Amino acid sequence: MLKRVLVAIDGTERSWRALEYACSLVKLSGGEMVIMTVAPKNKPVPVLFADGDCMTAQIGDEVLDAARSVMRKQNINCSYLLERGGSVAEHILQAEKAEDCDAIVLGSRGFGTLEGLLKNSVSQVIVENADVPVIIVK
Fold first, then answer.
1. What pLDDT, on a 0 to 100 scale, did the predictor assign at position 84?
2. Which residues of the chain fall short of a pLDDT of 50?
3. Which of 15, 86, 133, 134 could be joined to 107 by an S-S link, Cβ 3.0–4.6 Å?
4. What CATH number does the domain located at 4-137 have?
5. pTM for the full predicted model
């Protein structure tokens, strides 16, 4: 039984599908969700000037705000996490433990097997290192 499901989103179409799928799972189990995003520290943004940390937080907050809008329509208890910089996979794995989650749901980036191995995809690292079941949504 899934009591707490971690969903990592990044604003892509596949991550929104992962959120939708996780909602279905949690509704069936009566559990709750932890929705997180990891904002890259040095992501280029189309602005004239901005403090790097402030802009990174803004990008991450926009993704989480969009998730909050989606979740308002659901009858699911959830919390939100924003992490900045560093390894996306490591942040997800740490959150799974810290938040005592039973499963992780991620959107696939769409790499093929060989390309995913060469690029060390986030989903590949999570699948190999997570202590809980991992669901990859295409």
1. 85
2. 44-57, 111-118
3. 15
4. 3.40.50.620
5. 0.81
Task: Please give the full DSSP string across 62-128, using - where no structure is assigned.
Answer: HHHHHHHHHHTTS---EEEEEEESS-HHHHHHHHHHHTT-SEEEEE-----HHHHHHHT-HHHHHHH
Domain range list for the chain: 4-137
pLDDT value at residue 11: 87
Numbers of helices and strands, H then E, in the chain:
5, 5
Cα 121 to Cα 109: distance, rounded to the nearest angstrom: 8
| Cβ contacts of 107 within 8 Å, gap of 6 or more | 8, 9, 10, 12, 13, 14, 15, 16, 17, 18, 136, 137, 138
- Distance from C-alpha of 5 to C-alpha of 71, rounded to nearest angstrom: 14
